[in-house]
Design a protein that fits this description.
5 strands, mainly beta, OB fold (Dihydrolipoamide Acetyltransferase, E2P)
């Protein structure tokens, strides 16, 4: 099973489909794209979420992002 982490959306630009979220309890921030959202079409600043951390060619990013109340 993949470990999920709690986070909070810092900002999201729906017109570009990109944003950043912060790992709860830290200053670590991770990039995400619209295609990484699960169960929602969009998110907004301040939303609590859960996500999976993945490593890509340009570093770590947030994937499988869903509202914190799901699951």
């Amino acid at each position: 099973m993949t470990q999920t982490h709690p986070g909070r959306i810092i900002f999201y630009l729906p017109e570009r489909g990109t944003g950043y979220l912060r790992l709860e309890g830290s200053r670590e921030e991770f990039y995400f794209q619209r295609r990484h959202l699960r169960g929602v079409d969009t998110v907004k600043k301040g939303d609590l979420v859960r996500f999976v951390l993945r490593e890509g060619r340009q570093g770590y990013y947030a994937d499988e992002i869903e509202p914190a109340g799901v699951g």
